């Protein structure tokens, strides 16, 4: 809608939450409209590389558009897709944590929990935040390590959400069970604060006195509360226990945390023990890595990076538009078509004669672009009209036209000589799997590329099924070998091409 009203506007779209896999997104009834709307932006940003990959795969699968590691080709324009890590305002937080009220609450909490280790968590009370899994892991920790009875307390701050009533029951039951099992007259192992009344000063004080900060999210973007914890630990350097399913964990700077799978209760309990018994030297080393990420990937850095990239992308698009020529459809400019089911192909002599006459004129430089391999029809063309330049396999091989600088019989130039072509074996294996399940489809293996023809007749009754299979095949290839080998997948109406990027 914005693009329709303001065709030349600079539009950047940033996804602040996790983007689902294509399997989940395809369940939406308005999936195509949503994707088309987002693709009207100049730049689409995500918090992690995984979320960006999910988006590209979803677009390839549902809209059958060409996707590249840097973005998506949409009709006559290219949409950039990039990753921008979120951060916090470190300068403001540093000023806040030095306020007298924070110091007061640090003193209060230190006196109240003297001689006790504090494990702190702060999450919204919904299923995806994994609060119940956190409590179960803490219970398992107390069962496994009786020496920590009356020596450790979990303070869990639960923020209110729209799902709180449903989630609240399962969480409070576990809290009640833990406290009934391990409490004494003077000790309560879990302090569960389901309130919005906690001030920011109290929250910062809690982060400052914590001996470990525990995040057990099932799926989350950038967990910025972990950044706040790291900054508040400037003096104590205590460890962070972080779910692998958060966006923060995907960045190398946060790999110095203690990583957990929140579904694995036993190992999460081990992580709690590791954090509480970690020596100061290791804790300091881990904290320094975490802190370096926090102070470099700030909120200001995020905004600057995103806006700069958005402006640059828009300028590139405008420059591309100003130099653009009218788009050719699939028929215009095509000298001859061939039946993909037929191996042999002889270019018509009439067309070759016309090309030869054009190439004889010194004012012209004639090139013939083809997806065909070097041997076969293009070899025949090279002999019949040697002055015509040839491009084979969609750019993988080039043969300049004969002339004073190239000689009478120019050699083919391999443009992918430095590429690792071992991917073809795995690619063909995947395509053979889909060929067995798609009537009329077949694989064409070339020297440096592979083509899968999934629908040889545009009016075939199996066309819709074939297109779905093609989308699945592209998705699978991109997932398994695409990024590893730097492959480009170019979709067409009845086939798609895989070649080095």
TrEMBL record:
Database matches in SUPFAM superfamilies: HAD-like, UDP-Glycosyltransferase/glycogen phosphorylase
GO CC list: alpha,alpha-trehalose-phosphate synthase complex (UDP-forming); cytosol
Cross-referenced InterPro entries: Glyco_trans_20, HAD-like_sf, Trehalose_PPase
GO molecular function annotations of the record: alpha,alpha-trehalose-phosphate synthase (UDP-forming) activity; trehalose-phosphatase activity
Alphabetized Gene3D superfamilies for the sequence: Glycogen Phosphorylase B
GO BP terms: trehalose biosynthetic process
Pfam families referenced in this protein's UniProt entry, alphabetically: Glyco_transf_20, Trehalose_PPase
Protein name (database record): Uncharacterized protein
